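Input chain follows. Return structure tokens only.
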Amino acid sequence: MNFKSSETQDMIRQAARDFAHKHVLPYVMEWDEAQHFPRELFHKMGEQGFMGVLVPVEYGGSGLGYFEYSAVVDEMAQVCGSIGLSTAAHNSLCTGHILYFANEEQKKKYLPKLATGEFLGAWGLTEPNTGSDALRMKTVAKKVDGGWVINGAKNWITHGISGDVAVVLARTGELLDSRGISAFIVERGTPGFKGGKKENKLGMRASETAEMIFEDCFVSEDALLGEEGEGFIQAMKILDGGRISIAALSLGIAKGAYKAAVKYSKEREQFGQTISNFQGISFKLADMATEIEASQLLIDQSCYLKNEGLPMTKESAMAKYYASEVAVKASTEAVQIFGGYGYTKDFPVEKFYRDSKLCTIGEGTSEIQKIVISRQILK
């Protein structure tokens, strides 16, 4: 068993770190305060290969694996959770769904634009009344001559307004039938497809989260991804990989909070010495460091299994569950170490604190991860 990262992995991590510090760090609080989604940034990320990390070279991507991909998300999130989140949603959900389940014609049409950042991707599963209970979705696609007509709404969609192309899950069969849902590719500008309300969020404020609304939206037959009725099964497989994304996002937030806390503890003096000398502080840092390392190992295990094409439903759920809870705990402890300063926007830890909570909710809550894990171990 080799725990050493490869030269390529180290190069990709360093490139992502350099990019984040140059193009993201100077604007983090400005974007957060204004809830500005920096669409132009993702063109630059596409030029660096960060928008198509997993996409094969023949489709314009970087042709790399999950170790490199998780490193990119991790490094972005250490600087800004919002940018890490948007990077993850674009790569693993929309782009990933097309990569794994589209036909050759669809891949050639969309993957080069998604991989270069020319197109920004969105992925529509969640609805106002169906979060974890996705089989009760009310968005319907009705078969008509030459294609399908989609009606319904999707909520909590990353890039719901700004996305250039969306993969949308809609019911094509009976309610609660896992083979009654299909996936469709819908481009922005298609009549009947529009963005709706943008959410005013606690954290991740520079990552756009919004409704997608479909009103008699006609798409041609070639918009169908895979076969009719396969959409839900496809979505569950995509979420397996998506859990690695959110685990890496969580890890980055935890690392960012931890590094800030270590630095501050070595600089802040009380009672004639730096606060890092006090056991109450040093033990917090020890817990944070240990839990971050454990999160990294769970993520690496999931990345290995995913790269090898092996089953990883349990492992990715474990990584997502554990790392997301660690992100919340680490950022909370970081605020505590900073004391009153940690409660102000002059220091970075309050933002890590706000951003971290999404990680225990998005792409399956911690409770849903426990359901997935328990079902796997009780088979």
